[in-house]
Amino acid sequence: MAVKDENSDQTLELFLKIGLDERTARNTIANNKVTANLTVVIQEAALNNGCDRIIGNLLYTVATKYPANALVHRPNLLEYVVSSKVKTPGQLEAAFTFLSNLASENFKRNEFEEACGIGVEVSVEEITQTVNEIFEENKAVILEQRYRTNVGELLGSVRKKHPWADPKIAKKLVDAKMYELLGERTAADDEKPSKKKEKKEKPAKVENKAVDGTHLQPSEEELNPFSIFPAPEDNIKAMFVDFGLAKERGGCCYLRYDDTNPEAEKKEYIHHIEEIVQWMGWKPFKITYTSDYFQDLYELAVELIRRGHAYVDHQTPEEIKEYREKKMNSPWRDRPIAESLKLFDDMKRGLIEEGKATLRMKQDMRSDNFNMYDLIAYRIKFTPHPHAGDKWCIYPSYDYSHCIVDSLENITHSLCTLEFETRRASYYWLLHVLDLYQPYVWEYSRLNVTNTVMSKRKLNYLVTNKYVDGWDDPRLMTLAGLRRRGVTSTAINAFVRGIGITRSDCSMIRLDRLEYHVREELNKTAPRVLVVLHPLKVVITNLESSSVMELDAKKWPDAQADDTSAFYKVPFSNVVYIERSDFRIKDSKDYYGLAPGKSVLLRYAFPIKCTDVILGDDNETVIEIRAEYDPSKKSKPKGVLHWVAEPYPGADPLKVEVRLFEKLFNSENPTELDNWFVDLNLDSKLVIPAAYAVPALRNAAVGDTFQFERLGYFTADKDSTAEKLVFNRTVTLKDTYCKGGK
């Protein structure tokens, strides 16, 4: 224990040297992860002997918010921080965004400096001039609202004009201008403003509502904000349950974005979600955003305080966690209602620093349900919102907003997975104390599939640590990954429909079951083509080298001879390529491939007989095979091989890249293991850079799916270029799933 105390003292001393106040430093040491990160960051910055507080605060932000997918570039960023070229929180946030998008690609200083405003100096005079202009533009409103004016909006306008300006200077100048224009704050400034619009009617009860509604379950907001798309388990099962149930019951389903965190919302994610929903065959009744209801949510929060069910709190996240674990009330829990109303108004108007206050619901700290321990309703974030703009500097939490917006939208059934079941008490508590209509909440088990992980946290770990190639890696059970692999939406819907809905959270669905539905569909829809993955050269000695025949090959097994659209042309020349695995030096009775002195049929072409084998210098490796073909087709060999020929003398066949995917994990249920990621199948992806294909495949477009005969079903990948096509194996031809179990 003495060693531990000594280490803690040294760490505390190190954190104090970089300008952290003692309270923040001690709270940081209580968090092992942040302590380790901050210590490494200080060492990388070579600041073990300390620095000024401004740089120290920036280092702390780097330690807690730096994007995990770009760690290789952290030393570059620290160089800019230490030299005070990156010196404001705004520049640091811009750096995080730039580096997160850059990931592990080459760092280009000029692009980084432009994105982060390096070298851009905004003088106090420039900020002052902008503040004066903004006040002049809004003078009438400010004089009318006086100290009820939303200062956050004014600061947002300054930030728009000068994104790299020092926010503290801007705040100081705005406050001074307010005082210059309005003078001392009066008692009237603290009075409740009169309502200018009629009070909204309560939503109609469910019995009076003709239209059913459900919603797409959102991700948990405490997770890494950039990992929210795609939400794997919800996308696959919940989408079918929500939209499917509404359709079956003659109702409708909303698609709502719970965009309560301004730092987490990205328009590309939103557009992608809408695209995925459409691809899955569903059409939302209406697309809404929680941010559409920010004003309603704010007014209801004020009402919640007035009714004595909410209070403004000043505890740090660490203190809140500690008090919850001990079931202790916050020291500010019983502060006067009028005091909380004033402080909440100050929060709204940008008068309180970020992290210094939250609005918490006054629930039940003695409850056995952790989700009743005075959950946070609002927090301060001086960050513009992609959908709501600069109007707000306080934002509601998911726990506060979700149930209220369900009620305001007259949702009849709010469906979610079982991990949200403990939140039901908070959901109904809030609607009850506000006298709002209460939708019906129902939870069901999430989808668990063998040999993979479905948890957002685990998937985010795989993505950010580069174990997979992004959220749309074809090995992942995300909708984006499945689509890229070539799995169709109809196959996914058939799979989920066959599973049904249960409240048993222990059920594990075999991956074979999904693959069965994929094969069932692709067998009917995917045209056949010839591709050789591992080519072995065969020279046909009794065919002229200048001779090239155009043969007919079937796109479909049941192609009718009079249907020309059911066939495609394949060249046949004196140089063909077969799979290396289809040849053996030693023959056997149960082997139907090619061997010395043995004949096989080249599919859609002619029988060939091996007459000679050319070996490499090691006298073992087969370099080339010599063979003769039977133009009369009188011989009837048992073995049938796929093949690809040179399209004309001396020209290689079409080269394509083929990616073969296996199960991502070796164990059926890797989540049961302590070190689940150690169970990763290191051979889950095999890239074949130079497979040979028939010319008919040359015009394949991204997303086109084919059956490579004898090999499996393959889909053209988005990495394809004009120079080289890339194909992902969707599924093998072999079906290991028992049809009786479908």
UniProtKB/TrEMBL annotation:
Residues 640-717 form the tRNA synthetases class I (E and Q) anti-codon binding domain. It comes from Durio zibethinus. Pfam families: tRNA-synt_1c (PF00749), tRNA-synt_1c_C (PF03950), tRNA-synt_1c_C2 (PF20974), tRNA_synt_1c_R1 (PF04558). Keywords: Aminoacyl-tRNA synthetase, ATP-binding, Ligase, Nucleotide-binding, Protein biosynthesis. InterPro entries: Gln-tRNA-synth, Gln-tRNA-synth_Ib_RNA-bd_N, Gln-tRNA-synth_Ib_RNA-bd_N_1, Gln-tRNA-synth_Ib_RNA-bd_N_2, Gln/Glu-tRNA_Ligase, Glu/Gln-tRNA-synth_Ib_cat-dom, Glu/Gln-tRNA-synth_Ib_codon-bd, Rbsml_bL25/Gln-tRNA_synth_N. Residues 200-212 have a biased composition (Basic and acidic residues). Residues 10-167 form the Glutaminyl-tRNA synthetase class Ib non-specific RNA-binding domain. Belongs to the class-I aminoacyl-tRNA synthetase family. The keyword Ligase applies. PANTHER family: GLUTAMINE--TRNA LIGASE, GLUTAMINE-TRNA LIGASE. Coiled coil: none annotated. Residues 526-630 form the Glutamyl/glutaminyl-tRNA synthetase class Ib anti-codon binding domain. This is glutamine--tRNA ligase. Its EC number is 6.1.1.18. Gene3D superfamilies: 1.10.10.2420, Glutaminyl-tRNA synthetase, non-specific RNA binding region part 1, domain 1 (1.10.8.1290), HUPs (3.40.50.620), Ribosomal Protein L25, Chain P (2.40.240.10). GO terms for cellular component: cytosol. It catalyses: tRNA(Gln) + L-glutamine + ATP = L-glutaminyl-tRNA(Gln) + AMP + diphosphate. Residues 237-523 form the Glutamyl/glutaminyl-tRNA synthetase class Ib catalytic domain. One of its GO terms (molecular function) is glutamine-tRNA ligase activity. GO terms for biological process: glutaminyl-tRNA aminoacylation.
